[in-house]
Amino acid sequence: MTPKLPHFVSFWRYLFEVNALDELEDVCTVTLLAAKALIDEERATNITASTLSIQASMCESTSNVEKAIELNMKGYEMRLAENPIKGGLLGGFEQNLAYNFNTANQHKEAVEWFNKSKKRWIAWNVQEGRAADRPTVTKKNTARCLFYLGRYREAESLVKVSKTEFRNEKVLNWAMLAYAYFVHGTIQQKTDRLEAASASFVEAQKLWMGGDQTRLHPFPAGCIYKTGVVYLALGKIEVAINRLREALAITKFHADRMPAEHARRLSKLSEALLQGSCDDDGKAKDLRDEAEVFLVRRDPAETDFGREESYNSLVPIFWR
Which domains are present in the chain? Predict the structure, then answer.
């Protein structure tokens, strides 16, 4: 007997949130095979589309965003072919494609998909007798997209709304609230409010860890890294070095799957050691050389190793 879809989704979500990607990949493969054997076409579509979505999330998290777009587009087209159309599920795929394009640095394309998702969700909610609104998570993700388009005021206004709405939910979605704080910290960092940015990144990490999530997930590592970057900009070199080392200790576990994240931590720690005159043994150069190796592993065409954006642009949007 095939388990009900919600049971599958809960299990997938758990594996994804604890970053058990090898196990999740195996589960998805088996699930797709099982779906092909189902006689009930609607159920087969539900399971297949949901599995494609989670596979896309895995691909995006491991820097294979082109494959993520392909998988989400396939799932989206399956949902478009349904009659009647399931507006909420379509809106979800439109949002997924939006942040895929964010990670791919196609931010104008991303905002178009966010706008599609917004319209779809509002129409669906009205049809179902609910308020003419979109999910808070969509607002938060749209705020992040607006940031990368340089629309900082709009982005900050929307992420503040998202944080308030997450806080007011009956059951606190601490993971999404943590992501919202991370987005806010990124905006504050870019607009030179470094102390505020540091506080936001620290709060994002606290929320994540308070939700009993694994410390080895790339998101808390991203929070620690960003805090280290801010401390470095504030001239708190020793604290920055400690934070960057802490982040590096986490990303070494994901270095094969996530070379861009590991490379930028190596590069930034190298920079911090040089700034702090803490490089008596030449460690900074070793770190920089290692960073270049991992960056080329992710993008063989990359040659500008001294540019921070060379690293940042390859990191998934969720913890960039």
Answer: 1-130 (1.25.40.10), 244-320 (no CATH)
